[in-house]
Structures are given as C-alpha cells and as structure tokens.
TrEMBL record:
Membrane topology note: Multi-pass membrane protein
Signal sequence extent: none
Sequence ranges assigned to domain ABC transmembrane type-1 in this UniProt record: 27-244
UniProt keyword annotation of Iron present: no
Main location: membrane
UniProt GO BP: transmembrane transport
Compartment list: Cell membrane
Name of the protein described by the UniProt record: Sugar ABC transporter permease
Gene3D superfamilies per UniProt: MetI-like
Keywords tagged on the record: Cell membrane, Membrane, Transmembrane, Transmembrane helix, Transport
InterPro entries xrefs: MetI-like, MetI-like_sf, UgpAE/MalFG_permease
Length: 255
C-alpha cells in the first residue's frame, strides 16, 4: 500500500482458509451454538409473549418497559456486567449458587475455564439480550389472532396448550419465520459477547467463526485470510437467507 506495488494472489487466501482445520472446527461450533441460541431465544420469547397476553394492563406495561430496557442496553456494556456477575471469588452468581447448597461451595468457580460452562454463560447472556425483541414482536402478532377461533376450539374441548400450538402458532407463523431468520443471522454473527466473556477460551473451544476471523485478521495480522473467511461467512449467510426467501415465495407471503 505504501510502495504503490502489489501482488495479485488470486484465490490463495481462500485456499488458505479452506485448508485450515481450525476454520472447520470454528464453523461447526458456530452452527451448533447458533442453533442452541435460536432455539432458546425463540422458545423463551414465545413463552414470554404468551405470558404477556395473560397479564393486566399495568403489569403488561411494566413487563414491556423492562423488556425494552434490557434490549436497549448496549451489548458491550451488558457483556462486561455479565462477566462481572460470573466472576470467581466475588461474582453474584457463584454466591447465589453457593447459598442454595446444591453444588457445594462454588464461590471460586471460574466459568470460563470449562468449555461447557463458558458456553452456558455466553448462551444465557445472548438469550437474555435477544428475548425482549422476540417477545415484544410475537406479543404484537399474537394480539392480532382472531379470538373467535380460540373460543370455538375451547368450546370443542381443546385445551389451552393445544389451542396455542395448533391455532395461535400457525396464525403467527409469518412473524415467527421472520424472527427466526433474523435470529439465525444475528446468532451466527455473535462476537462481542464471546470475545468479552471468554475470548474464545479455554483453548479455543468457544471460538466461533467470528472469533476465528478476528484473530486471523487482528491478532495474527493475517488480514487477507481474515477477509477471505469473512467473505465465506457472508456467502453462508446468503445461502441460509435464500432458503427463507424461497419459502416465502412458495408460500405466497409478502417479502
């Protein structure tokens, strides 16, 4: 860049990425973790949305305010606070778990020293950040469901749980599909939370594709390989999004 000369490398950077076993490991981790995040956030969001339909006006307003407040908090700030809550020695979570006496004395437990505990800590953080948006949108969709359909089903002896899964869910399916697709894209690209909590540790076992790309580009200073990995991730997300768009076109829903 400073000399004014350059060498054309063609597809060498992509070959380097595709030949790196860590790329495939991080990609597999990303798919698994994103699936767990989407499932958790969408299911919990559905539950919270349904709960909001049962609340009175004042309580519903209070819950909505709390959800919006949690969702509006910058994820960097909330991630730093979350890490403090799980700190060994003085973390509130370890103290509460110790008080329950179910797991013994876990005051000095370091969550990020264990792969599964580190993933659990990050999973709880990301789901906590995602649920408000999902719950509020699904609540809005649920309120548009024709109550006469639910009343007719209940008169026929259908339980409330069965009414929800067989009547409400199909009717809010378009909104649910949009939210699920957005969640897939967001959760596939989770970076701040993982970097601030574990930085991909222990031993790179929580390093998703975002962490892999960042370390290649800005830790190892292999900018070309990092950029190539980013392009490949973009292509993967385009492929996932195209599946959703194809579904919309086949079902006749508006884009």
């Amino acid at each position: 860049m400073f000399t004014g000369s350059f060498n054309i490398v063609g597809f060498d950077q992509y070959e380097n990425v595709l030949a790196d076993p860590e790329f495939y490991k991080s990609l597999a981790r990303t798919f698994g973790f994103a699936a767990a995040l989407v499932a958790g956030s969408v299911l919990i969001g559905m539950g919270v949305a349904q709960l909001m339909t049962k609340l009175g006006p004042v309580m519903r307003w209070l819950v909505t305010f709390v959800l919006i407040f949690a969702w509006a908090m910058p994820n960097v700030a909330s991630s730093v606070v979350w890490k403090w809550l799980f700190q060994p020695g003085y973390g509130v979570v370890n103290w509460l778990l110790t008080q329950t006496r179910l797991f013994g004395d876990v005051t000095n437990l370091s969550w990020t020293d264990n792969t599964w505990l580190a993933f659990l800590e990050i999973w709880l953080l990301v789901v906590w950040q995602a649920v408000p948006y999902i719950a509020i949108n699904l609540y809005a969709a649920t309120t548009q469901v024709d109550k006469s359909c639910l009343e007719a089903a209940q008169l026929d002896g259908c339980s409330k749980l069965r009414c929800y899964w067989q009547i409400t869910v199909p009717l809010i399916k378009p909104s649910l599909m949009v939210i699920t697709m957005l969640s897939v894209i967001w959760d596939f690209n989770v970076f701040n939370q993982i970097w601030l909590v574990s930085q991909g540790g222990p031993r790179e076992t929580t390093a998703t594709i975002g962490i892999f790309t960042y370390k290649k580009a800005f830790v190892s200073f292999d900018i070309g390989t990092g950029a190539a990995a980013s392009v490949l991730v973009t292509l993967i997300l385009l492929a996932l999004t195209s599946v959703y768009i194809r579904y919309l076109l086949k079902s006749g829903e508006d884009l």
